[in-house]
Amino acid sequence: MELGSIFILVGALLSAADGIMFHLQPNTQKCLREEIHKDVLVTGEFEVQDTPGQKVDIQVTDSKGHHLFMKEEADSGKFIFNTEDYDVYEVCFVSRVPPTQRGIQQEIKLNTKHGVEAKSYEALGEAAKLKPLEVELKRLEDLSESIVQDFSYMRQREEEMRDTNESTNSRVLYLSLFSLCCLIGLATWQVLYLRKFFKAKKLIE
């Protein structure tokens, strides 16, 4: 199958609790991607506009190409997975239209959640026989932990960037000193060479 243009939508799309809607052109692919932390629950629900003769496949992959979810000729459905590593995760919709048919664009609806948003606290409360207030407190506790993890990750990234900058600055300094030494050595050699040359020509004593 030959795909037309491939559109990549980059942004915080997987975290949009209200979901998104877009149009998929015939024989094209649209992918939505986002970086997600390790050990995070991700859920998704999708719906594809029914168009006679046209098929749409969906696949969810990580940056290494591992398939976390895949469904051919998808019309609607749900997917759920836990992230094993901090990585970029991608949801792709692929349109397939027979060469003999003139295709039309299809409407795609996608609602994805991750982290605290993806957990069903109502089901958790029923299973543990918790009161509504206790369920809400549990949700707030998880939300607080999620915020702390985000800040911890941001601090870690800041430290990594600072270490990288310091390492780069040190390398630039060493390179500058090496270049300066080379220039001084070259200048000294030129002076000695010219002095010897002029003496040989008896231009100087």
TrEMBL record:
List the protein's name: Transmembrane emp24 domain-containing protein 10
Annotated membrane-spanning segments are 172-194
Classify the source by domain of life: Eukaryota
Where does the UniProt annotation place the signal sequence?
1-19
Keywords for this entry?
Developmental protein, Membrane, Signal, Transmembrane, Transmembrane helix
The text of the family note is:
Belongs to the EMP24/GP25L family.
Query: Which PANTHER family does the protein's record reference?
Result: TRANSMEMBRANE EMP24 DOMAIN-CONTAINING PROTEIN
Species = Halocaridina rubra
Task: Specify one Pfam family.
Answer: EMP24_GP25L
Query: Which locations, inside or outside the cell, does it occupy?
Result: Membrane
Task: Give start and end of each GOLD domain.
Answer: 29-139
Cited InterPro entries: Emp24-like, GOLD_dom
Traced from the root, the source organism's taxonomic lineage reads:
Eukaryota, Metazoa, Ecdysozoa, Arthropoda, Crustacea
A GO cellular component annotation here is: membrane
Q: How does it sit in the membrane?
A: Single-pass type I membrane protein
